[in-house]
């Protein structure tokens, strides 16, 4: 063993499996730190556990090339295995109410061929590592058409579109900046930390986005509600807020959040976040609000 070699170096010198399952060491029949260098002539007994695995911190003190190589190989393999498991969970969630096990080999192979991947594990690994979007893969597996993500932010040449269907709603993220609702023109924006987020096409935050996906709505069930944000200017009178609440309640909607600010000329700015079913429902709510005595303006905020 070279000078400065530790018990971990020694364990890997004996056998890779000994090193990978090392949990401790006895030197001269006494406990000995794994990170402490061994001395010539010492009696070493490596303690192992079949459920143990290498620790990344070992790379800070091992000195032999064999130990470093084996530790790095194990950690890389484990990272990839974890990515496969994560990718499988994400894809199954995006496939709801279907599951990966429900799909035919042909459905899976079509997706693999298009992405030049050799195995399902390879696809799941790419999803787990964030290189592929689970929602996009799920759409292609179920619907049978691919979705292109344009890294230049230009979707003019894309013929395929991600359909926002009720079955995928639980796993879809809708932007809180523009609050898209059914029948809105929409666009998906791929983000590193949050996956695919659906925006209103006129949302200001799409201007600097680089990974966009064309999207459209499938017909939604009437029971599904979405958030919409309204900006209202109304005369600052005692009846202002009660009148708004009455109009919204009469439109079969509810207020999720409210914020107010006094303006000049005895006006009150009211920002409302309300529940709506689609653009038609929202239009009906705005119509009722605009008919309230004292309302100067009422419009939807889509962050445009």
From TrEMBL:
Molecular function GO labels: GTP diphosphokinase activity; guanosine-3',5'-bis(diphosphate) 3'-diphosphatase activity
This protein's record includes keyword Coiled coil: no
Domain (TGS): residue spans on this chain: 1-48
Signal sequence interval, chain numbering: none
Family: Belongs to the RelA/SpoT family.
Keywords of the record: Hydrolase
GO annotation, biological process: guanosine tetraphosphate metabolic process; response to starvation
Family annotation (InterPro entries): ACT_dom, Beta-grasp_dom_sf, TGS, TGS-like
PROSITE patterns in the record: ACT (PS51671), TGS (PS51880)
Enzyme kind, highest EC tier: hydrolase
Gene Ontology CC: plasma membrane
Pathway recorded for this protein: Purine metabolism; ppGpp biosynthesis; ppGpp from GDP: step 1/1
Domain ACT as annotated: residue spans: 229-303
Protein name per Swiss-Prot or TrEMBL: Guanosine-3',5'-bis(Diphosphate) 3'-pyrophosphohydrolase
E.C. no: 3.1.7.2
């Amino acid at each position: 063993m070279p000078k400065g070699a530790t018990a971990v170096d020694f364990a890997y010198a004996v056998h890779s499996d000994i090193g990978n399952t090392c949990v401790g060491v006895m030197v001269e029949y006494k406990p000995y730190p794994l990170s402490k260098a061994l001395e010539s002539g010492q009696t070493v007994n490596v303690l192992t556990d079949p459920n143990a695995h290498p620790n990344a911190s070992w790379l800070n003190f091992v000195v032999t090339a064999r130990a470093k190589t084996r530790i790095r190989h194990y950690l890389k393999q484990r990272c990839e295995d974890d990515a496969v498991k994560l990718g499988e969970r994400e894809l199954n969630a995006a496939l709801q109410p279907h599951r990966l096990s429900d799909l035919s080999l042909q459905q899976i192979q079509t997706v693999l061929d298009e992405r030049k991947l050799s195995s399902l594990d390879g696809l799941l690994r790419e999803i787990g590592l964030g290189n592929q979007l689970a929602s996009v893969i799920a759409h292609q597996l179920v619907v049978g058409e691919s979705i292109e993500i344009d890294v230049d932010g230009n979707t003019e040449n894309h013929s395929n579109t991600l359909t926002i269907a009720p079955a995928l709603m639980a796993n879809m993220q809708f932007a809180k900046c523009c609050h898209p609702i059914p029948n809105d023109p929409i666009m998906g924006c791929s983000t590193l930390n949050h996956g695919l987020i659906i925006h209103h096409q006129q949302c200001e935050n799409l201007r600097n986005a680089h990974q966009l996906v064309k999207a459209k709505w499938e017909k939604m069930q009437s029971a599904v509600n979405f958030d919409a944000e309204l900006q209202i200017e109304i005369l600052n009178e005692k009846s202002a807020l009660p009148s708004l609440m009455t109009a919204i309640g009469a439109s079969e909607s509810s207020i999720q959040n409210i914020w107010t600010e006094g303006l000049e000329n005895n006006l009150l700015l009211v920002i409302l976040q309300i529940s709506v079913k689609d653009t038609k429902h929202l239009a009906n709510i705005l119509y009722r609000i605009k008919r309230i005595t004292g309302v100067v303006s009422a419009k939807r905020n889509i962050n445009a």
